[in-house]
Amino acid sequence: MRSLDETDIWSEGIEGVDVPGYDRDGIRAGIVHIGVGGFHRAHLAMYVDALLTAGEARDWGICGVGVLDADDRMRDVLHAQNGLYTLVRKEADGSLAPRVVGSLVEYLYAPGDPEAVIEKIASPDTKIVSLTITEGGYAIDQKTGEFDPEFPGIRADLEAMASGKPPSTAFGLVVEALARRRERGTGPLTIMSCDNMQGNGDTARRVFTGVAQQRDAELGKWVAEQVTFPNSMVDRITPATADSDREALAERFGLRDGWPVVCEPFTQWVLEDDFAAGRPEFERVGVQVVDDVVPYEFMKLRLLNATHQALGYLGYLAGHRYVHEVAQDETFVPFLRGYMDAEATPTLRPVPGIDLDEYKDTLIERFANPGVADTLKRINYGSSDRISIFLLPVVREQLQAGGPVDLAAAVVAGWCRYAEGTDEQGESIEQQDRLADELTPLARQERTEPLSFLRYRPVFGDLADDERFAGAFRSALESLYERGAAETVRNLT
Question: What domains appear along the chain, each with residue ranges and CATH number?
Fold first, then answer.
């Protein structure tokens, strides 16, 4: 049994496991990444590792940063393993393709030493701050889409910075570092969101500029004029690591890793070329560097992510627990493809270089990969944020155009039924949503007071007032009550 903290592991190698073929000594961290989770380690860190393997990007290593108290576990694992971890690609035939990734060359834990994080970002070596802080983690007012200075933690950060104390959120830490860069003449950098939402760079711009303006008007102006915020589209299914994944790595390859990452074979990253202080040559390792990310964003969010929502709630209610079970269910596949073809695709712009029919076929194949074993519980996490970002824009565009909305309405009805907190067998469903305390009572109330759920305006706006959508929602929900999810889906297709 070998461990990643063994210094001789590279000279001896590990049978069946790719290991970095480059010398990690002397790699400088040009990227500071906030939010080191599974997706970051299966995506951005993997691309940088590929560049290092090709003999490039030795000034573009990654310093990971944890800002949450719960990030102490990631800190401990990465420190024990010298920043190394195993990325395990799960093939559809059940085979595993592990690679040890070496691009994370440092890790800082903000709750224990915020000053170290601020100084790292303020360092002249740092050219990019990248982020995976989840769709709901940005300080944005859901009604206006603008910066929300009352978002949890923001006001406390502003007060801390005003009194010379270190902030604690990702936004405060970065803004304090930007203030120091401006004062010292270090120059601007790029803030690169890798979160799964449309216009992620534009959203980051609004938040970081807003915090900077609240701290100091001149700093806010400097950030707005000098710091760049490229938009990007990111895609790789990365289920949560299970104990069985650790055990499989140990049993099949004799490698002990405290926190490996598992992922599907597919990966895609479309990135806007807008960098204030340079960037790695990402295009050398398969990244699509483009002038306009928007068509790719729409394609991914409205096809892949919204379809995840379509299979997540209804599939769970029907008794499935994994994505591949739903995608292999002949009752559900026509429903999923019907949503993509009839409701989502008409809202898309032309996507350069992409055959949409082929892309949709690939999505079903990816979802059906049993090796990934992605849970419905994971994709149903944060429902109110995900439905709002992935599905409801499709609904609104279709309503405006007079297009069909029945299948999307059934997805929302499925979420409502799921949000009641029990499945069709009467088993409890744990609700993992920031608005669960408000939405679960409304979902239960829906049985006696129709449209209670849909009238929750912070999520649905005025959709309850649209007779066509509200009617389709109620029709699907009544079918779920009377016939269950499988029969409801079958009748809709």
Answer: 2-290 (3.40.50.720), 294-492 (1.10.1040.10)
